[in-house]
Amino acid sequence: MTTELIILAIVVLTALAFDFTNGFHDTANAMASSIATGALKPKVAVALSAVLNLVGAFLSIEVAKTVGKGLVDLNTTDNGASLMLIVFTGLVGAILWNVFTWLLGLPSSSSHALFGGLIGATLASLGTDGVLWEGVLMKIIVPALMAPLIAGAVAGIGTILVYASTRKVSANRKKKNFRFGQISAASLMSLAHGTNDAQKTMGVIFLALVAAQKVDPNAEIPFWVRFVCAAAIALGTYLGGWRIIKTLGKGIVDIDGPQGLAADGSSAAIILTSSHFGMALSTTHVATGSIIGSGLGRRAKVRWSTARRMVIAWIITLPAAGAVGAITWFVGNYINLFTDSNWVGEATVFLILVGFCFLMWAHSRKSAVSHIDLHSGEAVTAREVLKETLPASGKAGA
Hints:
It is a single chain. The chain has 14 helices and no strands. It is mainly alpha-helical. Helix 2 runs antiparallel to helix 8 and helix 3 (62-69) packs parallel to helix 7 (171-211). It starts with a helix and ends in a 23-residue tail after the last helix. The model is unreliable at 376-398 (pLDDT under 50).
């Protein structure tokens, strides 16, 4: 096997690692409401979400085209090794930010972490001419600003209408009927997540294949790429990012069945629409906006302190992941120049990635959160995420 193929394999595996982190980081977007209301048990919820993420990944490739062909100007790279290093270090920036925000229990955007990492690495390597700024503006920045507001408004109006139309329905009947409605809406949300987020990694792997000259820049996304990306995000989803599920399900606003139905239904509709038009929307922004909007529509208490921390994380995700992508590009590039090789830099950055991820995972064990905590009323009370200390004994998974 040639050095180029080894590097390509490392990049593809790193992309799938990001896809995996995307899955467990964003499980909450689809299932936090259903788990919080008791419509679904935690393990059942993540299993259902994983299957539907897998199916949704095959429904469209428009978002994959945006990532693979709409962010980096492929004509400005003079060789495959240069583009390969950009893709690899961009992924490293995204993964490190995803794991860090998971550790904090903050539902930041995996999508923006990926875009930020790629843009930062591209700027470090090619300068401003290497980024397709029109694509960044129209398909990333504008949707990021508008999506939470639109989702919140739709969910708020939907919540008001749902409560108004069910005033005379008994509490027991309402709880039973809305349980099925909420499961259906959450399932649609999981399907929508697969159509949007799994495709982002497909686009990244496509960039790597173009860099290695294994596919033509104008070719379609290969089927095997679609399959492995769908499988990776489904596996990550099944393992469940319990910390973030807890934040969205209980950390912002208390959710009941009608409210959860309105939030999940509005999120799914917006994400499916954006996927159809190839907009690489942040499902995290949409889901969070919907939950807050549904809380306002119900006139429930919104925990704005947690919401503010989330918004801050949103704002700094692009530049933070971009900074990590740029820094790791410089590390990898200059090590390659110093050693006169095409792989030592990538290997060094890969070891840095593994080391930091292990340290953050080890730190997370000090206050582990599992699906058991989501069953316990005491464990998910109004104590704010980031301030609570949970017992580490007897907890499995995070």
